[in-house]
Each structure stands twice: as structure tokens, then as C-alpha cells.
Design goal:
The structure is a homodimer. Chain A folds into two domains: 49-69 and 115-229, 3-Layer(aba) Sandwich (Rossmann fold); 83-113 and 237-449, 3-Layer(aba) Sandwich (Rossmann fold), CATH 3.40.50. The first copy, chain A, has 18 helices and 15 strands. In chain A, strands 1-4-5-15-10-11-14 form a seven-stranded mixed β-sheet, with helices on both faces. In chain A, strands 8-7-6-9 form a four-stranded parallel β-sheet, with helices on both faces. A two-stranded antiparallel sheet of chain A has the order 2-3. The first copy, chain A, has helices spanning 46-49, 55-62, 72-81, 90-96, 117-129, 143-154, 165-170, 172-180, 194-200, 210-222, 236-256, 271-285, 303-306, 349-356, 367-381, 387-406, 424-431, 442-449, and strands at residues 9-10, 20-22, 67-69, 86-88, 101-106, 134-139, 158-164, 184-188, 227-229, 262-266, 292-298, 308-313, 322-327, 361-365, 411-416. In chain A, helix 5 crosses helix 6 (143-154) and helix 9 packs antiparallel against helix 10.
């Protein structure tokens, strides 16, 4: 028996946790284009967002400050599970026979089992501070609804969640988790909103989409002065909160005495990817490190690699401000793949801008390759990953196998943004040969792209 | 907003993890009575266990040594998730309005989500070392089967799991988790074994029991020289491996600068309870601390508070050696309550002996009180507990509320031995008023007790 004892994780004490979030906008050569008011097509001001968000969050959305202090009340909650561990994937490396060193930052240790509480907690905190009584939101795979329900419970806020219909039907445990934390869950499209009732007129919409669920949650928030809306990805303030991941990982890679040559994160709306990569991008822009930064997106919903860079709505009903982003069209209905959390038609405007600036790459990964990576990871590292980060694992494995061929020194850092305890039906499909890959063709995306409104580029 | 930042967890570095397991037997005034061969009724020797376990584990079962060194290969695996965190439950204390300080050692960070890998890993390690090719086992709630499947994958062993029928039917995600790690799952009673076929003759046995599933797994192991059996609780070597929990907690309580007045653990077969409490019991026997040590068992399967202390079989078919333990009778079929992992007719012989020596107490808790505690815990501490440790949480809350009345200085340490991600159907029942308490009466237990064989007390 091999009795070698290795170091598997690089931890930080609570006291070592960073106390600021990082705002990449401060370090970019040009700022991202502003959101536009959908009526006037003029840049949207803070007052345009006020029915949806408390002013503290709106100010974070538009701040130019490089660092934003994390309030004590948020640090206090973060400190229950943060700093999260950074793992060296020794056993996966062995199984691949690669000389590459693979590290993963694991966010599955959070109460909701993903990175989402990193922003749910400050969002609930600032809403409570502003006197808000209730939060509404949407959830796809269920990670975000769980996180917001948890955060709302801590601050005594009500939480009402519109869960995408297909997810509501196939993931009862996700709904139960949200309810265990005290939240209320509605199947979307619902009869509770004008938007929901309108979408229900067409049976094709019955399975729902994130865009439809957002329309419902936004409508309810906008119509009640005591209620606000919370979004789990896409927006600047959400990505800002998630930078705690990358800031910790920077400190942990230093403890490991290693420097990443590849940083890989999965992208849906972009918050996990931005959270991991932005602090490293700051270091790269400053010339201190030079990693490739790679977004791994699902082949079924590839907004970066197959979308266009244009102004589009964030929701299906066209109620949100217009945002300049890589989009497949706000009416795009993705294939029912398993990585539900990545099935959003658009990409964070900030990440879209960074992509346009040539500061990062993107790869679209078919789902069977993701699950092949997931099973190999589970059986070596012992953690069953959520479907979302398996896209990043697949890219990490691609790069690790390349290193085996080329012998090039390769140090991969990826984000394992959540566990897959509520996604095992997808593993069942994969292990029993019922999973097929997505169709990826121009024809597949033509209908969605045709719905993008003809807005003059800002 | 309250912006106080508190310390929530007491962590240890990998380097600070204890490198020995602790054997309580070395410090007891009298040794526990030996297991008996079911045919001869003479004390069972190592050779009697050899068809089931590798010799390293048999030697650990009977060792008198105070400390057993943890092999490097096991330490290396432990170090992925261990040392596990010790939390201070600040928000639960606030919600209870209690002056008591409540700490919980959290084992849900392990790959399987419970304390079970602490023994699954060394059991797989020693079996691999002995040249074994396949492990068989039973699983009730599913925690143990998941843990053994994970451990077997690491060492390249096959793993075959008999899952109690009612659990197999109601918890498909547990089966899928075992399969994701590479294990094979059979519904028990199965047609694959003589024992299973015999039990299936009576339709009353269709929902299965741990005792039946053990019979099946033991039968398969005993009939194949390349296969051994692994047990997830009850036996001395299992409790030995679990003492890593208490050894770490001792170091962490010292870091917290606090001394427990109450140590509370849930008991099914006893491994989680023994793992937490034995190192503290060592300190108590040495006169260094004086905590009350309390076992929390389910009212539906209360072997300590309603069983008898007698020699009985470990399985339903009567294939195992006879063990002196608190038992409800090896034919006892518990009510179908949700804390499936605690539904074993017997109690670890070592814990039974400690209980007879008056070194600990026991309380039986009805399930609605458990889930009331669970929901309060989830909504304050942010972790949805497995049903098993909610028994201990209920006792912790009882004691914390007593402290509020009496003002007595109370420091409670409990083990949160797993998360409830696969048990949310039970939360659904509780939150929607479908959960009722168990019948606890002499009549309820009479049938089971009558099946205990008339063996002369050793």
C-alpha cells in the first residue's frame, strides 16, 4: 500500500478572509457600455433600477471604485463557511497520468451547496437595511433560489421564488430545500402574474425558462413598494460579490507556492466565472501573472461562442433595461440539458465586454463530455459535482491531457462551484446511456437571434 | 444593521490532525463481554471472523492498545476533508435566547456527506492490503453505502450494497450517489441470496430491514474467498475509526477556550456517538473534565431506553456471532420513521457496556420534536441536517432551554454527523403536517424482545 501523505487542501483562517470585493471595471481600458432604458433607449440611471433594487446595490452596480468594503454583518455570515477550501486534485492527476497540476476552489461547502450565497447574503443584507420586507426571484437549477431563501431567513425577510417549470417538475428536492429554509416556491410560468398568464397561453412555454421566471419575479417586485427583486448572476454587483472566490484563491495559490497557467470557469450568467477570474485578471493586467482565462459554456446554450454582441432584454417579456451582452436572443429556449443553471440566453455585460476586449477565451462543451469528466472526478476526488462546473472540469481535463502530450508546464485552477446532490437524475441518465449531445448549428440558433431588438449600439 | 463579526468555526490544519485512533477499552475498569460463536456459544476467536473481515480489522476489533496508528494511506485520504470544522452555533443560541454556548462538530463536509467515510476508508484500505477484490455491505438511510462505495472506488475495489427496501424505494438519489461512485445497489430483500429469498416468502418483510440486508451481504461475503463484508457501525473497530471526530473536537474546543458540560450524540448502531464521545470520556475518566454524556435515540427504535441487555444476533437471519448489547430483538421491525440510519435493533456492545457502567445517559426523542429542531437549526445555522443528528439537536435544544431557566453555565457539544440533502421528503412531511409521533409502549416492543435467544450471560 502507498502510505504517502500529501497536502490536499490550502485553507485560510476566518481572520485571513479578504474584507473587500474587487471591481474589475476600475482596471479596464474602457468601461462596459451602459444599460439602456427600454422606452427612451437612453442610458438607464439609478432611479430606473430603484423599483427593483435597494440603492446600496444600485450604487455597487455602477461604482468605479476598485474595492468595495464588505460590511461586518456580511462578513459575519460569510465566516460560517468561508474561506472555502482550495484543493489540489492529486488523485485526478494520477488517473489522467498528467504532469499538470490541477487545483479546484470548492464552493459546495456553503449552506446552499454552491457559490450563490456569496451574493445572496449581501443582497439580503442591503435589502433588510433599506427596510424591504420581501424578496422575489427566479431559479433555474435551483441553486440560486436555495441561496436566497437561506439568506432571507437569516435577515427575517420573506422570499418568493419562481422556479422554471421543467426544473420544478424534475427536481422536487430543490423546492423542498428552499421550503426548508422558509421560502415559497411557485412553478413558472404561473397564474400569479400577468407575464406568467400571457406565456401560459402558448403551450410551448409550459416548461418555462429563466427569462420567463425573471419576468414574473420582476413584475411582482415592481408592483409592491415593500418588495424588491434579487438576481443571482449577470449584473455587475453580483459579480462584484463573487470576487471573494478569486481573492481567496489568490491567497491560497500563494500558500501552495504555485502560479496558474490556466484559469477555467463555467459560464451561464457569468457570476461564478467572474468571481474566480477577475482578481486573477487584475494581476494579469498588472503584469504579475499571465494565465490563459477560459470560459466553459454548454453547447446547448453557447452565448459567448454562438451568440451576438448586442443590446437585448434580460427577461423574456422585455421588462428589464436593455443590456449590451453576448446573447442568443431573449426568446431563446435552450435544449432541456441537465446543466440547468447555465441555460440563460445572455452573458453578463461585464464578461461580454471583457471577452470583446480579448482578455479571455471561451469553449462550448457537449454534455456527455461534461458528465464523463464528472464521473472521473467523483471517483477520484470523491465529490459529485453539480452539472454546471463539469463544463469547467471537462476543459481542465482537455488541458491536462494536452500537457501530457506536450510536456508543457501546466497549472490549472478551476472553480468547483457546487455539488451535485440535487442533480443525480442527470448522472443516472449518463451512466445508463440515456444522455445525448446537443445539436450545435447555425440553424439551431437562428430563431432566437432573430428576436434581438434593433437597438442602435450605444 | 448589526455589523459585529464573530468567530463561527474552529478549524485545524491538515498537519494538526490526530494521527492515532483511540481505543476506549484500554481505559475501562472492566472489558466488554466477548462475542460468542452462535453454534458453540464459546467466545468467538479471530478465525471466526476471518470469512468476513481482513485480519488487520479483526485485530483492531479485539485490541487492548490505547492508541492505534492511522496508516499513511488513510491519513492521505482523510486529509481531503479532515479535520472537519467545529462550529459555534451563535445564531441558534440567539434564536433560543439561551445563555448556553452550543458547539457542533460537522461531518457533512465529507465526500459522502456524513461521518461514515471515517471508517469506510480504513476498511477499504485494510481489505485492499489483504488482497480482497470486492466488498459487500448493507445500507439503511444510504449514508453507509455511499461512504463505502466512495472508499472502494479509491482503492479499486468492487462494492455491492444491499439497500433496505423501503429506503431503496423512497430514496432513489441515494442509490444514484452510490452508483456515481461506482458501486452496485440491490433492493433488499433480494432474490440474490438464500436469506433474501427466505425473507421474501413473507410479504411482511418486503420493505426490508437493516438486519435482513446484513444477512444478505454477510452471506455473499462468506461464500466467496475474494469478497469480504464491511459494517458501518456497532463493532469496536468501527467505533475506533470514528474517534478521529472526538480527538479533533478536543483540540478544537481547546482552541475555542471552552469546556463542554454536555456532550450529545445521536445513536443508531453507535458509531457517531462513540466517535464523538469516547475521547472526551477518556478525559472524564482521567478527571480532567466532567461533562454529562448523553445518547439521543429515536423513540421508534430505542434500544438503550427500551431494550434489554442480552446476547443477541447482529442480523435477522441469525448468521452473525452473538453480541451482548442493548437490543429490541433481532426480529424487531421498527416503525417506518425517517431517521432510517438509526433504525437498528441493537446497540454497539461497547456502548452498551459503557451504558451499563453508568458512564453515560440516554434519551429517546419523538420524531416531530427532532424535525422541529431541524427546521430551527436550518433557518439559523444554514445547514439542513440529516434526520439522524436531529435527535441530538433536539436534546441540545432541551438542555439549552433549561440553561435559560436555571442560569446554570452550560456548554453543549454535539455532532452534526451529516447533511440532509437526500432526506428532504421527510422535511416535506414535517412542514406539511404529515408527520406523526411513534407509539412508545411496552406492548410495542414485546414481540421483538421475545425473539432474543436464551443464551447464558457470558
Amino acid at each position: 500500500m502507498d502510505d504517502t501523505v500529501r497536502r490536499h487542501k490550502y485553507t485560510l483562517d476566518e481572520d485571513e478572509m479578504p474584507t473587500t470585493w474587487y471591481n474589475l471595471v476600475a482596471d479596464l481600458p474602457t468601461p462596459p457600455p451602459p444599460a439602456l432604458h427600454p422606452g427612451t433607449l437612453q442610458p438607464a440611471g439609478p432611479e430606473d433600477f430603484a423599483p427593483l433594487f435597494p440603492m446600496d446595490l444600485i450604487m455597487q452596480e455602477v461604482t468605479q471604485d476598485r474595492y468595495v468594503e464588505i460590511p461586518g454583518g456580511v462578513l459575519d455570515v460569510y465566516r460560517q463557511w468561508r474561506p472555502s477550501p482550495l484543493f489540489r486534485a492529486h488523485r485526478l492527476e494520477e488517473a489522467l497520468g498528467t504532469p499538470a497540476r490541477i487545483y479546484y476552489k470548492y464552493e459546495g461547502v456553503s449552506p446552499a451547496g454552491s457559490h450563490k450565497p456569496n451574493t445572496a447574503v449581501p443582497q439580503a443584507y442591503y435589502n433588510k437595511k433599506a427596510g424591504v420586507k420581501k424578496l422575489t426571484t427566479e431559479t433555474g437549477a435551483g441553486q440560486w433560489g436555495t441561496a436566497l431563501s437561506f439568506a432571507a431567513a437569516l435577515y427575517g425577510l420573506e422570499c418568493e421564488v419562481w422556479q422554471v417549470g421543467s426544473s420544478y417538475d424534475s427536481k422536487p428536492y430543490r423546492r423542498l430545500m428552499i421550503e426548508a429554509f422558509g421560502g415559497t416556491v411557485h412553478r413558472s410560468p404561473s397564474n400569479l402574474t400577468a407575464a406568467g398568464r400571457k406565456f401560459l397561453e402558448d403551450p410551448a412555454n409550459f416548461s418555462g425558462s429563466l427569462g420567463i421566471a425573471i419576468s414574473e419575479a420582476v413584475e411582482v417586485a415592481a408592483s409592491d413598494p415593500d418588495t424588491r427583486y434579487a438576481l443571482g448572476s449577470v449584473l455587475n454587483h453580483v459579480l462584484l460579490h463573487q470576487t471573494i472566490i478569486g481573492e481567496e484563491a489568490l491567497l491560497q495559490m500563494a500558500k501552495a507556492g504555485d502560479t496558474p497557467t490556466h484559469i477555467v470557469g463555467c459560464t451561464g450568467g457569468g457570476s461564478n466565472f467572474g468571481g474566480l477570474s477577475f482578481p486573477f485578471l487584475r494581476e494579469k493586467l498588472a503584469g504579475r501573472i499571465s494565465p490563459r482565462i477560459i470560459a466553459a459554456e454548454p453547447a446547448s446554450c453557447p452565448s459567448l461562442t454562438h451568440g451576438v454582441y448586442a443590446y437585448d432584454f434580460g427577461d423574456s417579456a422585455g421588462m428589464t433595461p436593455l443590456m449590451k451582452m453576448h446573447t442568443l436572443g431573449h426568446d431563446f429556449i435552450p435544449d432541456p440539458i441537465h446543466a440547468g443553471g447555465l441555460r440563460y440566453h445572455g452573458m453578463s455585460p461585464l464578461i461580454s465586454h471583457v471577452y470583446e476586449l480579448g482578455m479571455m477565451e471561451a469553449q462550448a462543451i457537449p454534455q456527455t463530455e461534461c458528465f464523463s469528466a464528472a464521473v472521473q472526478f467523483a471517483r477520484t476526488e470523491g465529490i459529485v459535482p453539480a452539472p454546471e462546473p463539469t463544463h469547467a472540469l471537462a476543459v481542465a481535463i482537455r488541458e491536462a491531457l494536452k500537457a501530457k502530450e506536450t510536456g508543457e508546464e501546466t497549472v490549472i485552477l478551476t472553480a468547483l462551484c457546487g455539488h451535485g446532490h440535487f442533480d443525480l437524475a442527470a448522472y443516472d441518465d449518463y451512466l445508463n446511456g440515456r444522455m445525448v449531445d446537443e445539436e450545435v448549428s447555425e440553424a439551431r440558433f437562428a430563431a432566437g437571434l432573430s428576436t434581438i431588438p434593433p437597438v442602435p449600439v450605444g
